[in-house]
Amino acid sequence: MASRVAIVCLLGVAVATAACDRASPGNGQAQADTAATTAASPDEAAPANAGARNDKVDRSHKGEGAPDVAFAAPGGKEGPVTLAAFKGKPVLVNLWATWCAPCVKEMPTLDAAAATLGDRVPVLAISQDMDPAKAIAFLDQRKFAHLRPYLDAKLGLSLAYGTNLPTTILYGADGKEIWRVTGDLDWTGEEAKALLAEAR
User: Which band of pLDDT confidence, cut at 50, 70 and 90, is reported for residue 34?
Assistant: First the structure.
């Protein structure tokens, strides 16, 4: 009997460790396969690879086109858009959510980078919150001046990329991926500046 209790306790610890830990800023966040995971709240899901986290620049997808996934533009007036709509100039895509601690941590530096990049490299902060109102309120409350609320409530981009949050992807003017970063980054730091200089 004691051995069964010990096994149950160990399994419980393993499951808890694998689940999304929004309080831990060092943890990558939710891959959005809600069918295969148990969500801790209506707008978050545990990552399929909870322990896997790159925290590095990934160039293995260089040259790939953006997924053909529709998401909502700010205000919803333009209707659904896809990343193909931004072809013709480089674009920086950031997948984030309000419940993702690393996302929240990097957001001020992403806003500052968006100010520096201006229209030359649009920054699309695309929320993966299932409740769009949360993302809109988050950006409003923090008064980010250069990040507009793009919304992907169906988590289509997270699923298409098969990635944890935050993930940031740079596309060239030709619509092809240059690199992606999984995990938070200081977007005003020297490493980020060197990466962003690759935008063409």
Answer: very low
> For residue 67, what pLDDT band results from cuts at 50, 70 and 90?
very high
Confidence tier at 79 by pLDDT (50, 70, 90) = confident
Task: Give the burial class of 114: count Cβ atoms within 10 A of its Cβ; 0-12 exposed, 13-18 middle, 19 or more buried.
Answer: buried
**Amino acid type, 140:** D
pTM above 0.70, yes or no: yes
Question: Please, are residues 166 and 102 in contact by the beta-carbon 8 Å criterion?
Answer: yes
Q: Which residue has the tokens 């920086």?
A: 92
Q: Provide the pLDDT for residue 56.
A: 85
Can you tell me the distance from the alpha carbon of 149 to that of 133, in angstroms, rounded to the nearest whole number? 10
Residue 40, burial from CB neighbour count under 10 angstroms (0-12, 13-18, 19+)? middle
> In which residue are the tokens 């990635």 written?
163
Distance (Å, whole) CA 80 – CA 132: 14
Structure tokens, 41: 């709240």
- Domains of the chain, first to last: 2-196 (3.40.30.10)
Q: Is the pLDDT of residue 126 over 60?
A: yes
Tokens 């944890």 map to which residue? 164
- Does a cis peptide bond (omega within 30 degrees of 0) precede residue 166? yes
